[in-house]
């Protein structure tokens, strides 16, 4: 169901779930893609005469109030993007205080609630919290495709208490993904990197049954290298996932999916921009060194794989791209993919907060066929899994 199905919204309050889980450094938003993605829905609802109450999560505070994970700085950043004031519901939670705050604001106002994950019931999809959230509005709109793989109170539970609709970006993302990847042109190359190893590694089990090649980069690659017996020194690596990584490699083998791991890596002793560094084989990383980027031989391997593929699906940077010069592999590979996509030789689809930031940093995002705001949700969609946040909008 779409916003257009909601009828007359004059004087109504629309509760909108957005994904404002944006990259942030020292309290400043460093990439506003996800903020811009919310504009279509927020403006459509305001134009229709509704008051807009935004709900979002930020980070993983696990039901605790963590001041550094407050959405307050995001309210200011979104206000700039929107070109209108955004009122932050400070210390309101989702109870009576929140209700009277929302009621006190005039029609057409935009309000941002505090981090939904400060509530212990959010990730448990608690019914009582869903009901308290629902009490803040007349209709519910989900525009957070990137959080739709989570069955949480603000993405799924709430739909049992309010008429629920898909937002403009949610709809556009689903349409674009279906068009590009519904029946992908083969061979399909997937690139999965980034630092969120434990939350993404499970998805690879299924992904290797769907794609022809899987290139693994970033922290994820270190975990796979370690699982193969390579000593990765001080690198970001989840050693307890070694068995799972081996299982994934086995499943890939059975499904004729080739796994590409880094063949050279850039290492440093300090996790800092411009830290003294060297390039070596993964087997030659010293005990006091950490892998911060892939080397150029690895990039060449990846670019060659792109040349043999018709479709590229990319989630997660190949190194610590936010700290130069450890952005080189990600930037070079992104630009190579962008050029092939622009020339019509590759359908290149990317997703994920950090990935979008990395593609923007490489100035390659506009050349990709489609860039989704979603990371985990995008991969789960790729696997063909039903997304609870999307399913809840269907009935
Ligand atoms: C994301 O950044 O991919 C989404 O906001 C979901 O965040 P999560 O992985 O912490 O649920």
From TrEMBL:
One Pfam family hit: PGK
Any GO molecular function: phosphoglycerate kinase activity
EC number(s) on file: 2.7.2.3
Chief location bin: cytoplasm
EC category name: transferase
GO cellular component, one term: cytosol
Pathway(s) where this gene product acts: Carbohydrate degradation; glycolysis; pyruvate from D-glyceraldehyde 3-phosphate: step 2/5
GO biological process terms on file: gluconeogenesis; glycolytic process
Record-listed (2R)-3-phosphoglycerate binding positions: 34, 117, 150
Keyword Transmembrane: no
Entry keywords, A to Z: ATP-binding, Cytoplasm, Glycolysis, Kinase, Nucleotide-binding, Transferase
Localisation: Cytoplasm
Chain residues that bind ATP: 200, 322, 352-355
Binding, substrate: 19-21, 34, 57-60, 117, 150
Xref: InterPro entries: Phosphoglycerate_kinase (IPR001576), Phosphoglycerate_kinase_N (IPR015824), Phosphoglycerate_kinase_sf (IPR036043)
Catalytic activity: (2R)-3-phosphoglycerate + ATP = (2R)-3-phospho-glyceroyl phosphate + ADP
Family: Belongs to the phosphoglycerate kinase family.
Subunit text: Monomer.
Xref: HAMAP family: Phosphoglyc_kinase (MF_00145)
Protein name: Phosphoglycerate kinase
């Amino acid at each position: 169901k779409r916003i257009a199905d909601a009828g007359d919204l004059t004087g109504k309050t629309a509760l909108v779930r957005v994904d404002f889980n944006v990259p942030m450094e020292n309290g400043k938003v460093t990439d506003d893609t996800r903020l811009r993605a919310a504009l279509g829905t927020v403006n459509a609802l305001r134009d229709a005469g509704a008051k807009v109450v935004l709900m979002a999560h930020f980070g993983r505070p696990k039901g605790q109030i963590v001041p550094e994970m407050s959405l307050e700085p995001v309210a200011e950043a979104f206000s700039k993007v929107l070109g209108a004031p955004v009122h932050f519901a400070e210390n309101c939670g989702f109870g009576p205080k929140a209700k009277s705050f929302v009621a006190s604001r005039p029609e057409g106002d935009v309000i941002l609630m505090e981090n939904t994950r400060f509530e212990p019931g959010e990730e448990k999809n608690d019914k009582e919290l869903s009901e308290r959230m629902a009490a803040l509005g007349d209709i519910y709109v989900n525009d957070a495709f990137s959080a739709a793989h989570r069955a949480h109170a603000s993405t799924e539970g709430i739909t049992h208490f309010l008429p629920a609709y898909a937002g403009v970006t949610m709809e556009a993302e689903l349409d674009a993904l279906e068009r590009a990847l519904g029946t992908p042109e083969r061979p399909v190359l997937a690139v999965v990197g980034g630092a969120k190893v434990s939350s993404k590694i499970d998805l690879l089990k299924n992904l290797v049954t769907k794609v022809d090649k899987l290139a693994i980069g970033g922290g994820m690659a270190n975990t796979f290298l370690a699982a193969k017996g390579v000593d990765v020194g001080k690198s970001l690596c989840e050693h307890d996932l070694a068995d799972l990584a081996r299982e994934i490699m086995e499943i890939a083998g059975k499904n004729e999916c080739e796994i590409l791991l880094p063949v050279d890596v850039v290492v440093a002793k300090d996790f800092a921009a411009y830290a003294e560094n060297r390039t070596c084989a993964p087997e030659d990383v010293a005990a006091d060194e950490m892998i911060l980027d892939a080397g150029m031989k690895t990039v060449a391997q990846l670019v060659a794989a792109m040349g043999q593929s018709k479709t590229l699906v990319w989630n997660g940077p190949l190194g610590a791209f936010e700290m130069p010069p450890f952005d080189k592999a990600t930037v070079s590979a992104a630009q190579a993919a962008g050029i092939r996509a622009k020339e019509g030789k590759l359908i290149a689809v990317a997703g994920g907060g950090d990935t979008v930031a990395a593609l923007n940093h490489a100035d390659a995002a506009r050349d990709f066929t489609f860039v989704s705001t979603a990371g985990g949700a995008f991969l789960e969609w790729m696997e063909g899994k039903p997304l609870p946040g999307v399913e809840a909008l269907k009935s």
